[in-house]
Amino acid sequence: MRRRKAKKNVILPDPKFNDVVVTKFVNNLMYSGKKSLAFHIFYEAIEIVNKKIDDQEGLSVWRKALENVTPSVEVRSRRVGGATFQIPTPVREERKSSLAMKWLIGYARKRNEKTMSQKLASEIIAAAKEEGAAFKKKEDTIRMAEANKAFSHFRF
Fold first, then answer.
1. CATH number of 92-156
2. Sign of dihedral through CA atoms 71, 77, 78, 81?
3. In angstroms, what CA-CA distances link 51 with 18, 107, 119, 125, 132?
4. Boundaries of every domain in the chain
5. Which end of the chain is more exposed for a tag (fewer CB within 10 A), N or C?
6. pTM for the complete prediction?
């Protein structure tokens, strides 16, 4: 057990949209401390989303994409009597957003467009339409939890 609770780092809102969630997303997007480059990639991706989807604002499409990728349950491994069971557990609120961001960025990096901002924009648009690799990951996670619902009594 810990002696005290860990301090939460205060995250400042981003300069353009004045939103803390955007900064968290950019922090996940960032490689080796290159924050200004990560902001540039994100803002460019939002501009591409604006151009591709005419009727909606880019930031609202990104929020919808994050919401669509956010998981509600996940499976955790637990050893009981020599056997390992996959036990479905509800996801904490902070972890939900963290997983959604990581999945969106990870699957954007694996796409086959030319620049990272184009990859990110395509993945955002796909996730907002409830398709794409990040959304499929969420669906697979939920399906796995459904399949292992019988072991939920092992949860502690």
1. 1.10.455.10
2. positive
3. 22, 22, 15, 11, 19
4. 92-156
5. N
6. 0.89
